[in-house]
Design a protein that fits this description.
By secondary structure, this protein is mainly alpha-helical. It has helices at residues 5-21, 31-46, 65-77, 82-104, 110-122, 124-127, 137-156, 160-178, 181-196, 206-227, 233-244, 253-270, 286-291, 294-306, 308-311, 325-337, 344-367, 381-402, 406-432, 434-448, 465-475, 496-501, and strands at 53-54, 57-58, 454-457, 480-482, 491-494, 504-511, 518-524. 63% of the residues lie in helices and 6% in strands.
């Protein structure tokens, strides 16, 4: 008896939360996570939710919306830690996938829509990296993708006030998370779509000005409140500088050229296994095939017009492209459904790729214990290993002997592998990575000097929000920079040079997540 598609849906949904939540808070923060958590923490300590700070100084790099979100989660749970800071990522990833399913379902079967939604969750970069980090990008990308979809569907319904109103409202939300890139996405989308539809005049309609008014109202209200505390000129200058980072403005022509040719291959790698379907794009008459389906043509158009800025930007992380993923996945899954018109070699390539993944997965699980150095410290190690090995082997056997749907089978396998990753790889990282030592030393410093005033001496901590977060969270108070030696009862976080040349007595060492760098807790010599 063959399992039905609905059985695969239920199994995938049943595996989803364990895959995304097991050991979510185990590994210490990376620096980018710590920035978000520290800024939110300092807002809470200062009772100032309008002007973000870091180390007690104004923080200009990002607007505060995502910090507000982290604050809401920490208030609900009554504490701040890695799990709570990463939980919004899981929530927004599920919302992102639900949005993909909702809009795909308007045009495609339940099966195709389900695969399209789960492909986002199970692509390599998200499943095995970004889905367990407390970063802005998944929430930001969900908001931008929702804007893409609103533009098309409200245009199709000829509801222009709703189109521009919702699009600009979503862009305002995205702007308050990440700044100017939100405006670039909206501007490019509107121009590309209305020029393609030969309706450029709509961009000068009252409906469009209505949308602009909504954006100004939302964003302007925040910055009006901000201006009551701090000057706005530095804010907008910094937002512009942040947006110009990693573009050709900051790099040489040679760097840009090398990146231009490497970029497609790097992105295909990061979004495997589903990105191997881009091979379907290597067909004759591709433009006319895509134009046969208006929604797919729109996805292809927005992808093609919004990706070039990243294509020419040298230092681009895959997480910056998450809003593009469902656009290109919609296109390649559509072409897969139309594979009757695809060259036979492409179809065989896809089939062999899926077969290899299903065969190699149990082998990889079988050899995994030989690479783990701390397997004896994992509770119920052999039981867990047996569950993952039997599951991956069973999935492969069912696929080959029952000839089950390849993509649905692959989704289940990937979710099982993520559970194995949570059980084995995350504890290994927690034991082996330097960030764990750094976290423990920062927490110890915060605890040991909890009853004394503590400052960062000048800028001796450097750009190290991770250490500052763990100390601040342990002490439950804001950690500020102090540029003068004046408090003999306080302790200072100082660098080696300050210990050597200033009048400090070293009390404790703090490990820093950069190679073997250390700072120290010291007090003024009496």
């Amino acid at each position: 008896m063959h399992p039905s598609n609905s059985t695969f849906y239920k199994i995938s949904l049943g595996l989803l939360l364990p895959a995304l939540l097991i050991n979510l808070g185990l590994v210490a923060f990376i620096n980018d996570e710590a920035i978000r958590a520290l800024v939110a923490l300092e807002m809470d300590f200062s009772d100032n939710y309008i002007t973000p700070t870091m180390f007690g100084e104004y923080y200009y790099n990002k607007p505060p919306l995502y910090n507000w979100i982290l604050l809401v989660f920490s208030k609900i749970y009554g504490q701040s830690n890695e799990f709570i800071s990463r939980l919004p990522t899981v929530v927004f990833l599920l919302a992102f996938a639900t949005t993909i399913y909702h809009f795909s379902r308007k045009y495609f079967s339940k099966k195709q829509s389900f695969i399209n939604a789960f492909a986002l969750i199970t692509c390599g970069r998200i499943l095995f990296y970004d889905s367990f980090l407390g970063l802005i990008d998944i929430c930001f990308s969900w908001t931008i993708y929702s804007m893409f979809m609103v533009v098309y569907h409200q245009w199709k319904a000829e509801k222009y006030y709703q189109l521009f109103g919702f699009a600009y409202a979503l862009t305002a939300v995205a702007f308050l998370m990440k700044g100017l890139p939100a405006i670039v996405f909206l501007g490019t989308t509107l121009l590309a779509h209305f020029i393609y539809q030969k309706q450029f005049r709509k961009l000068f309609s009252l409906a469009h000005f209505f949308g602009i008014g909504i954006f100004i109202g939302i964003v302007g209200s925040y910055y009006y409140a901000y201006h009551q505390y701090n000057d706005l000129s530095i804010v907008f200058e910094t937002l512009f500088i942040e947006s110009a980072k990693r573009t050709p403005v900051e790099y040489s022509i040679l760097d840009t050229i090398l990146h231009f040719f490497a970029f497609p291959f790097e992105m295909v790698f990061h979004f495997l296994p589903w990105s191997f379907l881009v091979i379907y794009l290597l067909q004759k008459g591709m433009k006319s095939k895509l134009q046969e389906h208006p929604f797919i043509a729109y996805n292809a158009l927005i992808f093609a017009t919004t990706i070039p800025l990243y294509w020419i930007s040298v230092e681009v992380y895959p997480r910056y492209l998450f809003m593009h993923v469902p656009l290109i996945f919609s296109v390649i899954f559509y072409l897969h459904q139309q594979q009757i018109i695809a060259p036979k070699w492409q179809i065989n390539f896809i089939k062999k790729g899926v077969n290899c993944l299903l065969i190699l997965a149990p082998i990889a699980v079988l050899v995994l214990p030989f690479f783990l150095k701390n397997s004896d410290e994992i509770p119920f190690f052999f039981l867990k290993m047996g569950v993952i090995l039997l599951s991956s082997t069973g999935i492969a056997a069912i696929y080959f002997f029952k000839k089950m749907p390849s993509f649905l089978t692959l989704i289940v396998l990937l979710l099982v592998l993520r559970i194995g990753f949570n059980w084995f790889i995350l504890p290994e990282r927690e034991k082996m990575e330097r960030t764990t030592v750094c976290k423990k030393s920062a927490i110890a410093a915060g605890k040991n000097f909890k009853n004394r005033e503590m400052y960062i001496f000048k800028e001796d901590l450097g750009w190290n929000p991770t250490t500052a977060y763990y100390i601040s969270n342990e002490r439950n108070e804001l950690l500020r920079q102090e540029f003068e030696k004046k408090d003999t009862n306080a302790v200072y976080i100082v660098s080696e040079s300050s210990i050597k040349w200033e009048n400090f007595e070293m009390l404790q060492t703090i490990e820093i997540p950069y190679k073997n760098w250390q700072v120290f807790v010291g007090q003024l010599k009496k």
